[in-house]
Protein 1
Amino acid sequence: MTDPGTSPRATMRLQFHAGFTLDDAIDQLDYLQGLGISHVYASPIWASRAGSTHGYDGVDPTRIDSELGGEAALLRLVSALRAREMGLVVDVVPNHLAVGGSENVYWLELLRNGRSSRLADMFDVDWQCGDPTLHNRILVPFLGEPYGDMLEQDALTLSVDEIEREFQFIYFEHVFPLRPEDQPRVLAELGLDGGEDGGLTALLETDEGKQRLDEALEAFNTHPDRAQRRHALLEDQHYRLAHWRTANDWLNWRRFFDITELGAVQVQHAWVFELTHGYLFELVERGLVDGVRIDHIDGLADPGGYCAQLRAGLDRAAQGRPLDAPTGLIPIWVEKILEGQETLPDSWPVAGTTGYDAMNVLSVIQHEPAGEAPLTALWSTLSESDAGFHDEVLAARQELMASNLAAEFDRVLQALVRCARARVESRDITPMMLRRALHALATEFDVYRAYGDADESALWNRVQDKARARLVPPDQGVLEYLVAGLSRQSFAEDELWGQARLRFAQLTAPLAAKAVEDTAGYRHAVLFSRNDVGFDAARFVDSVEAFHAFNRHTVAHWPETLLTTATHDHKRGEDVRARLAALSEFGEDAVAEFEAYRTAAQALDGGETLHPVDAWFVFQILVGAWPLELGTDDTEGLSAFAERVVNWHQKALREGKRRSHWLYPDEAYEARCRDFVNALLCSDAGQLARVRLHAFVESVAAPGALNGLVQVLLKLTMPGIPDTYQGCERWDFSLVDPDNRRPVDFERRRRQDAMPLPTLLGTWRDARIKQAMIQELLTLRNQQPELFSRGDYEALTVQGALADHVIAFRRQFEGHRLLVIAPRTTRTLLQGAPGLQIDSARWGETRVLLAEHDRGMTFTDLLGGQVVTDDIELSSLLTVMPFAVLVARAGINGAEQAVDYCEATASNEHY
């Protein structure tokens, strides 16, 4: 466990870019401090591509991005943080750098000098792939047209880099440097060799020389034989230019998922690790960084080894921190997607995950079990299939291995072929046998990757059993051979098998991400609230006991893990998911409303109807994301909302890869979908349908908003460190990126005055209640940090007819007690009640039982003010607020403690 001086109590994720710089963040620190945030959690601040809006396309990890203000701005930000006793968590991207273009000097050096470059092993290039045209060469698939066509076009030009004093080809934003040894040859091609010129450098030193060079280059680029002359030069380079469509089939270097503009970096090499992390360690040593978030840990060769190496480097750097810097261990959080019952390896020296697992467990308990059957039946009718989400994942895996990730699949296959041929006992296993067995194994591999741990036998046995059913008996023997080698049951120290294991792990991670999140997640959606990053979409609802089990595991293993409900990568905002979860309570009513909407959609389509699945998708997003302040006659607001929905749906269509595709979009169908949304939301013809849809949204809005508040309440009180994504302290009806990265109106948030929570509950639509609740609960966390960082967790027993509608638990540390009581699935409870306040009489005799050692203590609700001393009758407790946070301390009167606490929060001006 980290030192309290270093470890965050609460973080806020800020997205930095040219429009919101490090200096801009300084202006918000008073607000964040008043809200209760202890640490700014920054998106990547390292030098990235010009105009980057997210920072994950880094080009140089040895400097701070100039568009963010550079290191000088970082120093100013940290100084301002220190003045407020706050800290900084940075996002590190060790897996990849942006390639192509002209900004990554490491990539350009690799192109320039190829395998002989000092950086030859920085990027994960297969220099000996099976294609003879790529022997010791790099495929560079950045051409917009086939290579042969590009040779003729003016977009591809020979030019000179005057700074590097070298020849290069330019293609739009891309730069392709020529080999240094080719300079005399190029000069000869240009008719500038020999004589008094003395080479390129001499030409560049005089105006006359530059003019001669420009004229020669112009002649070269417009020559009738320019295609042949360009090809002759390019054919001898360390790279091979190619059309962008060749990448999925032919790429001989590893990338991030299927994004060819992001090249994988081999941080497993000590010198690459030091090159890419040295500046981070320097910033830690200078006292500027207090925590580290690691992006896509599963893309690395050895995630556990990397974490150990990073831990050691951070510890060494921390020893030299200034005396005025926070002390203690620098925490590490890893972006790790946990599938099914998978847990984070205990051996990793990290504080926990970035919180997707918490986001999932908070979502799944807010769904109504009775809603699953009618909504699933509707889905089966619309999709004309009984296939479940898992079936869609399996189909997506198979498609991706034949398309987007074909090159990655073949790289694993070639590694396995080398393994088989290296031993006489396996020499008769043919490449096609290996292909079939590998395909079956990767299809059924139901986690992101294996790590080679001793306790992974259950994983391999499960996957092998499922894969065996996909193969004929002879190939089942090949499968057993593969599993034995990949799981280290055999050939544990064999170098070829070590490479095959690495390639397999680096296939299964992107295969899982692309199949689950980016394909099946946009194909199969009984409810989109269950389709998000890190979610188990096959599970519609889970028990409250599963929620308690998750929290007990967190206390025992990862008490400092991050807890999040929204991220820069989420598919739908936290309050969109909360409202759609409430839709599960409407069951048949939701189905009826959809059918009415669908009838209207057909009329608006003029006979050209949307696919039934797309009609359901759009309906869900309209219901889930409709802004609370948006009326049916607000022309400007409806137009803006329509644009957001259209953009979301276009991305959904292309990610789903059924009725459109990123590589070959069906623009006609996309236009039909766009026209329908615009007609529904913006035209006179859509008025009647729009009014009815809005009325239904209004009926879902209150239980959805209460879900949203409960989600916040639980996140801020359960074990772990709560993270708030920028702007989500108000209602978050955002959609997938870039919609979820829109500018935040911090000024509006800063202006919020302190008001009693019960008063704000009555005006819940303006979102002040959510912001005030966050401030109240973070103040409590700051006042009693050890209760939350070290306190135990105990589920409380609930009795009564409505026990299934209650989540209740207890936190305790050295006499400090905290009881949390929250409702779930509240549609029926809210019916007839004003706003979000449940009629207390509806609770009947439902009660929460106090633990034996808590009986006789005085507990005070920090949110509503009620005082209890015995078993908690909900009809008595929840009369002011629909949930409660009860505090007490042994030997101290709870009412007096609550008065002191409320006075402290009331004096805080910065909500």
Note: Residues 96 and 264 are 4 Å apart (CA to CA).
Protein 2
Amino acid sequence: MADPGPASFSTRANALLRKNLTYQKRNLWSNVRLIMIPFYLCIFLVLIQLLFDTKVNNSADNRCGCDLVDTNGDGIREKVCGIQYSSADQGFFCSIPSPPLWPPLLQIPRPESRDVRDLNDDSCRRTGTCPVTILFTGNNRSLGGTVSGNLLTTSIPANSSDLLRALANNVLGTTAEPDFTNYLDTGIASNLSIYSIQPRCILNASLPFSFGQPPLNFTKELRCVQGLNLWRNISREVNDDIFKGYRKGNPEGKINEIAAAYDLLNTDRNNFNVHIWYNSTYKEDGGSRLIKLVRVPRSVNLVSNAYLQFLLGPGTKMLFEYAKEMPKPETSLRLDIASLIGPLFFTWVILLLFPVILSSLVYEKQQHLRIIMKMHGLGDGPYWMISYAYFLTISVLYVICLMIFGSAIGLKFFRLNDYSIQFAFYFIYVNLQIALAFLVSSLFTKVKTATVAAYIYVFGSGLLGIFLLSFLIEDSSFPRGWIIVMELFPGFSIYRGLYEFAQFAFRGNLRGQDGMKWKDFSDSAMDEVFYIIIVEWFLALIAAYYIDKISSSGKDPLFFLQNPFKKSPLRRPSLQRQGSKVSVEMEKPDVTQEREKVEKLMLQSSLSHAIVCDDLKKVYPGRDGNPPKLAVRGLSLAVPSGECFGMLGPNGAGKTSFINMMTGLLKPTSGTALVQGLDICNDMERVYTSMGVCPQHDLLWETLTGREHLLFYGRLKNLKGSDLDQAVEESLKGVNLFHGGVADKPAGKYSGGMKRRLSVAISLIGNPKVVYMDEPSTGLDPASRKNLWTVIKRAKQNTAIILTTHSMEEAEFLCDRLGIFVDGGLQCIGNPKELKGRYGGSYVLTMTTSSEHEQKVEKLIQDVSPNAKKIYHIAGTQKFELPKEEVRISEVFQAVEKAKSNFTVFAWGLADTTLEDVFIKVARTGQAFNVFS
């Protein structure tokens, strides 16, 4: 098969996308269960709303009162509803075809809050007789004085047949806050007094009067309060007085509220131009954000009437007799409790995606699936693009299902608010959530830990939102700036957005109107929430990508400062090794020869070898008082294409550290290595495109089949169409996973040996130029092992393979050359026959007799070979090492025949030196050398 070359960006992205879609298909029921969670929560909210409707909204107390009345005089009583049959609470819901006429009232501060800064003392606050302050300013002080003098009247009305007209001649004020409607004015209906604001008052002057007809009849006490008109030279003084007098505006914390203020500007006889200040804070009812009425009309009428009297004389009056609501039909209580508690549940619903995404990312990290994909050519660009798009698609489908579910079952939270605003809000937040998951995944290495932390974040955000953030939002005294600071926490920003949706839905349902529209965007807090989420998404995405580059790619923390147009050299010349001169001189001739070969190759313009390691070293820093650990000691090695190089060595010799450096998991402490002419220190991304890896532990997706694994990695190697199908089929057959439906079973159901064979097939698919195999036949039965060796031997024809193993049989069958590693250093190198010839200059004689004849056997061997050495002895069985230069095989046979005639020999054998013997001998010699060196 022709070399397909490295896969393009789109090809690798397509491979990952197909793998993710297949993985998602395998987890279909998990996704269905995930999507059903918001459905169940929506059903739960509907049930709560139905229960609330039954017990509260539709209760008798929250409907217009009714009674059985004989309307026709025929003795038949019929049910009749009306305000006359209602209690005070029920009357609010009755129809009002002719709303009552209420006298217009001016909003004035409570006695204890009135401005006393211009008085000599504040003793009036104890008696409740402080005047009501009204400020004036303008360009013409003379005109201003006249207008302010005309503002207030001097009489309290007596009983009159036309009470409204009599009251209209006076300036009436109230400390009661207005309501949302004016069907029942709280200033009249409350137990608070109505004040007649006059220039002068008789002490404790008051006048009772009755107003209205049953059931809306009230007996009120009209009390006199002094109105104090004060002049200020400029409007800035007025603004300063108002601000410092309002609640916490005063540095000393004292309240000195002004009833109203007028700036007459350039008003003269030909121009009437006035600005009116009034306290607008009464229009909002705390956290419910229901807009109340404001008592502004009376302020406008007062200054207009005063100006008319200035122009036309004191006899001119423009009476403001009454304020009246529009006629009202019968209504019922429509409190949408589901909207009020909805933010808690929907915060949980949206944030529930966070643990799902985070656990998926940490799973790939924990199982080393991300790095194995990278080793087979999947770059950071395709991985980020497809993974992000994959999670975004799932998240968008999730929130769309949530909106459809909620609307279909009748939740006002979704139905009343504009769908485009809702979708825009959810869309930008799930983007932030995905970026946060990528960022936070760098903090965890275990899925369980990440999942627990994520669910604590999910439920904690919802609970803190409803029990902390919502109360602070509704507390008008809490600084708005700190609310914004709290919304920087992503869990609070999602809650605040849902809170705004809930408030608009609640008000819209209560008034029979729509919820939030785009025209309400700036009036609510949604604009600041949008800005916060967008900025945080951008910053989180940059931070996540930066940390990923450092952690997974081994980039320098300041890599973004490097010149992107500067190309790194394909390789670098051999470094001066002054510090290793002594160790070089003590190396074995074969190791020295390999080092000299590498030095010559590094000076050539083009490399003829697939892998060249040049004085590669790895030192682990010391910890807990321990000295640094030298894992690889200046390794120099050249492996041409078509050769399988075997690395032998005891555990801890440094083989895995060497493989990890060659595959990009570790950075060399010094030295370098060239793979296909590319430096592993600078060009690892390009090295990955021509590399295959069979790691020591199987790195597989449990739910993907063997065939799907090979299809994915084959696509990463740029195999397409029929070439891909053929390569997958040949790979499955080669590792004996094709027949019996094994290829289409999930890898999680494979045995350990089957997983091992699949890992080998993955490393070889696509004919990579370089393959690293770390103990590939571990856990295989003899038949499967032999079959796997045949596959590897066939694959090495155009590939350079570096293989680590503890099986001498495997090393002898597969490897063209062997290198024995001891304590991080290469002790010898050569093909198996050379090593056995070099280190195996003896025969091994084994003889088993009864215990009483052991001495005779030992004497017999000493006669044949005086320098023979006993290397094994147990229960009558003895092994002897006979130098080849001292004995002939025929002499050994003759000695054994002689022994048989003298005593019983149960078994005996003569063997040449095995590779295992060579390994043991070299390992012991190397360890002893490193101990004494």
Note: DSSP finds 32 helices and 24 strands in the chain.
Protein 3
Amino acid sequence: MDGIVAAWLRLEARRRGRSLLVLALLVAFGTATVLTAVAGARRGGGAVDRLLAVTAPATAVVLPNQAGFDWAALRALPQVEAVTTFPGYISTVVAEDPGDDTPSPFVAADTEAMTTVERPVVLAGRLPDPASAHEAVVTPAYAARGFGVGRRVTVLLPTPDDAAAGIGGGRTGPPRGPRVPVTIVGVVRSAWYADEPDGRGHFIPSPGLVAAYPDEILGPDRQAPLNGLVRVAEGGLPALRAWLAGRGDVEVADRADELAHVRQVIGFETGCLLVFAVAAFLTAVVLVGQAVFRYATASAADLRPLTLVGMTRRQAATATAAAVLPSAVLGGGVGVLGAVLASAWLPYGTAALYEPSPGVDADLPVLLLGWPAAVVLVAAGAAVTALLPRARPAPRRSAVTRLALPVPVTTGLRFALEPGNGVALSGAVTGVLGVVAAAVFAAGVADAAARPERFGQHYALMAVFGFDGRVSTPARPALESIAALPGVAGVLDLRIASGRSGQVSVVAHTYDPVEAPVPLVLTEGAEPASGHDVVLALTTARELGVGVGDRIPLTGEAGTREMRVSGLGFAVESTTTGYDTGAWITPAAYDAIFTGFKEHGGLVVLDPGGDPSAVARRITGGPGGRLLVFPPFTPPQRAEIRNVAVLPVALGVFLTALALGATAHALSTAVRRRGRDLAVLRALGLTPGQTRGVVVVQAVVTAVIGLVTGVPLGLALGRVLWRAAAGIMPLQYVPPSAPLVWLGPAALLAVVVLALSPGRRAARIGLGAALRAE
């Protein structure tokens, strides 16, 4: 009998070689897609930890925002392992990058940068010579814009006088000082030197630039406040906070808290990728399963005569499985290779910005398990199909037959609602659910991308009056003149100081409208109305574990006051703090808790449809001509939310393929399984056109059930996903809605097209052969 099986396999290779090759390609595509998604999720989920393990990361960012801070005393603390400092308000501009008027956010003021703290991984080239003023490194996004290793650029520095004016918050115009030739010697990455989503990247000069041009960067009297990256021993951060508590307006940003948001975003991306892997797996099961089912069914029919010479059903199933085994092995191997090659594009989204070893990566545990799993599933599917009983199930009386409907409609309904069509119905529901959920999620993304107020930015312009307690322009008269300009809806007088509540740093902002009231963007509660009210940004409230109505102590250099949480919402995005951290308090509360300010500015709210550029020109062209006026800083979360939108959409595409594949298989199978029923109806007078109508009705009923069930489920799922994303970012949640009027016609058109081929086969059934077969 083994000889018969071997001869059968040789015969199958010649007769159905093309079908087996198509099967191998389907297996390869399915295997590659599923393994790529699973391996990408594992790689992205561990990106931050792997980067931190090799880069000596900073524990905290210390922001004294005051000149003359005693960094030597901080370095001498026993818990402090490394410190590097950088000026808070002065940095550099690259002349060859005219599209970027934002200076580099980091210019190291000492040689510990990139060595003892935040030592980046080098993706290309090398680290700069810390003693040279003519070398720099860049992040990957900056290099991708044509500024790679070896590129020579010109760094523009301000004059000492302009540097001093800039430190005080004055508007200085383009740099007019030295032009320094600099060569880019490396492309680097660490948690600190990381690109923002959709950002232009960063240019990071050597510490030697500050040593060579101190007056132009730090000011002629070294008045530029220095901030610092600090790495402390494990468990040493509370002691550092306690040491800093009595040294004025010093903000401490815990890097672990900042990276917690990154981990949340990556976790969401990873979860979406795993769900995508499940959807891809189900789609592969349906598509590959159809090919296996068709081959195994045909093979079983051809093997039936061999049972007359002693072949058992188990041996027939073994022969069928053995015939598809080479295709499964070949397809699985090609799929594994494809997954390895596709790993060069993963991880995606935020995780890609923290991947320490970008490029091709072979996740051996996933690959070594995925390949044999694909082979086993294909071979087992073929064997089980071959073992299925061939007897047609006895017809059962259906309630559909009692309906006074035309025969094609009644028959199509019976085919659609019989138990054997359950996979198609489930696939249709799942496909519609996925499409609707993806559309709703995409609508939420589009809304957030188009509306900065979802991230708390109800204001369109920011003005600066002074830094570090020094005033460059009297604030109140300037704000009153701005409020009187046409197109301005409201203005907030904004003073900022760093306080704390327990061990949590809280950056306080004054809620001080000038003339017209200016509402804050809140998720719940109300604006502060008294000197004991506080509105907390969402992340700060989460760190404190409080909600509306709770009470917290708020401490500044002038004292401590117990505050009642009147609302939760968003604060102000800046170069050092995020919009999701901080607090709003009244001027009376501010004066009781703080003295001076870290920053003093104004937030300008425009009328709907107002032109920020035109209003900015009016401000700088009038009494506020010396003011530094600029648009709000863009939160990186606005780009992050666009990144996480990719996978739900891709998931919807795969679930659509799942629904179409399952429906096509059900229609084809129904024609094959119900061939005798259709032949009997044809013998009783059913026309070929009516026979095609039976298949169309089955397809339409399947689609209608999918729409009726899948649309509400998809709406609910899409909103749940969007609420989860809104909580992770965070942003103001507004229930998204998507126009879905196209979905019904599109689904019906798709299933009608799918019904054309099986409908033609049904209309061409040979009556005599079909009846004799039974």
Note: Residues 458-634 form a domain with the Barwin-like endoglucanases fold (CATH 2.40.40.20).
Protein 4
Amino acid sequence: MTALLDEARAGRGRSIVLRGEPGIGKTALLDHLAENAQGCTVVRAVGVEFESELALASLSELIGPLSPVLGELPAYYADVLTLLVPQKPADSARTPPASADRHAIYAATLALLTAAAARRPLLCLIDDAHWIDDASAAALLFTARRLLADSVLIVFATREVPPFEAPGIETLRLEGLSEQAGLELLARSGNVSPLAGARLAALTMGNPLALIELARVLTLESADSLSDLVEPLPTTKLLQRAFAASLVTMSDRQRQALLVCAAAGSADLEVVARALGALGLDLVALDEGTVSGLVQITGRTVTYRHPLIRSAVYSQAGPGERWKVHAALADACTSPKDADRRAWHLACATVGPDEQVAVALVETADRARRRGGIVAQATALERAAELTGAARPRAERMCAAATIWSAAGALDHSEALLDQAETLAGNDIAARIQVLGERAYHAVLRGRTGDVFDVLVAEAAGAGPQDRLAAGRILSLAMNAPLARWDVAATLEVCEKVMALTAPDGHPDPGFPKGAVRMALARVLAGQAAGAELARECVAVCERHVPNGACAELAEVLTYVEEYALARRMVERDVAGARAVGDIALLGYGLRRRAQLEIRLGRPLMAYSDALECAGIADAMAQPTTIAASRATLALVTAVLGRADDCAAHAEEALRLCPDDDLETGVRVRYALGLVALAGGRAADAVDELRRADAAMRAVVEPAVVPVAADLAEALVRTGRPAEARRVLDRLDAGVATTGRRGRRAAALRCRALLARGAAAGPLFAAALEAHDDVDEPLERARTLLCQGQWLRRSRRRKDASVPLAAALATFETADSALWAQQARHELTVLGLRTLPSAEHPGLGVLTPQEWRIAWAAAQGRTSREIAAEVLLSVRTVDYHLGNVYRKLGVSSRRALIRQLGGSAELPA
């Protein structure tokens, strides 16, 4: 273990989980590390069983001593952490934010620990990690996984049960002592015979604490004194038996005083003293416990020698005595900082419904929300619901708890609460609408939107007369079911009902612009000109709202109708807004749509950076449908870049996670696979994939949503099936005639030229290029130039062919579309023109995805600090990765990196 500490001192960040049964020596190892941490800052936190509902309690305990470092952090991170770290008078001018997204707290924790480590190596010790609150665990594990070039060592000590999941972090399991080592440990006590010692060592399986405690409380003059212990017992039971035995001789006053300490957790000694006083006791009642070594008073806290002593004390008490003690502790928690403790003590002291206690827990849940403690928030709301008497507010609180549990990833538990809430709601329409809204969201997450479609439509119809806006919001979620199947008629029907409820005048409702945005999408899919008009009208309304996804959703519609400048303005607003407040879900949503826009604009490298970040966010959120959508985007980006193997891998992952009825994601994946096959000269494979995508989209009139048709037609031409190609093009031409999409018109003309015979192709290629002039889609234009050059070469117009082929190659190389560039280069080679060997973009083949994101951000002119905030790493780790990037790419400066990656940053003079 000290070797890990040496590595941290040397600037190599490490983290490790010590696992083992109670008493195996985990705490002793942590103490040993702390004693040997010369020259390091040491911070500690201990999980407490009765405090696991207090959001970020353990993290606050750990980082409290690091408060002097807050001034070195970016202002937003420092502000976020003031929610956790008590401010000194000198810092009182800093105002904590009203709330903080949990992922912002994770990033701020990483920033604080690495900033502290820049001063002195940092050792973070977290004991009883299985009992730290979920929000603290998530923040610390987030940081632990990102340590690389920082002088930080994080050590978690945990039991196997209850579980403490720490995927991706090194684990060391501690085993019991050998029989000889156990006998040597017992020999130090001086009252254990060799025979009894051997028996005890076998019974405890070498657990050092069990050996010591049992030797202390049992009379072990011979092996006969252990006759009731006939086989090895679980260590927890052995220790609880030993600890319980030490309570037998205590007076009732002493036991009650110890029970107060057990129930108080890590509360301040002043709180304990007040609770003791309310029970007719005082701190003197703890003397016997301190003398026997069960508890110790250090400064302003009372701690147990071992957590199992606390458990033994609490379990030995009867329920009535526990209620009495919790009530006393609740009354003793008078400080505002102890409001959450007070609420939970009241909850533990309450048996039946109690609205005052329920309200206190709702307030606790709101404080947890503002601190990013999502599990603590859900737990408090659920308990509040249990203590609520009236059916409607109980249903509302139960549903609210279910909503938060679903956000925490506990969908099964959330749905169980929704079942209860729906039963409680009965015929109360408002309550039922709330429940059904959450069920609809679950259906989206699970990819089973069809399961709730009919119910949502029926319930919204019943609720409409009472609350039109609420009914419209719920009903708008129903569009996800037909949209996932590309059922345009049903999508349009739902959206028309939503507009009738929320915007009967046909204009975007300022309170719910998403209704109009979705109506615009439905109309665009149906090929109605009013769709584009409504989308443009939504711009100003969406911009008046705080970033909430409406702008990104609208950007997707604007992309389809070739309003690329407006689309960029919209999506940038949500992406920038999400970064400003640390809203990771909104950020992922926006990045995916921005990547799709960048593809249309011929900037796949920018799209690749966005898609990688989006995929990382989806993985962090751990929602399969979100991961599938992000992988589908990565598949398309890598298809355009010509990275066939990567495209196939991303597509496989997307299809694995994508529900069978989610045809929308399936179509995007098949399109990506078909596109990369066509670019790679595998026209037959392209036909197979593109046919499947095209068949699923027959109901979509708008040809620019997923532009499959032209690529399928080209693949059919190249496989010798002109009649089939013409049928596909006839449908494409009809869509273009209806919608007027200039880019799709150019692509259709290109394919008509491929079908033409002899000189008839020339005017068609010319018309296609003229159409390309009207829309900013450089890769599509380059593909037309490539096809024109191929036709000219086959027509033996070699000199004429070189011009469009060279222009196509230049565009493909600028965009790093490797497979298309390979085709253009091959044609020029056939013409006898010398070209440089084919090579993919520097970095794409040699850099890891993490390194690529950092290198690309640096090439756009971002500083290491800005990159660190974007990729959620420390500044030192960013610089470490940049060092690897320089080495792999053979450059020595950011100036050279900008040149090699073709970044947008201005080169220094």
Note: Confidence is low (pLDDT under 50) at residues 219-227.
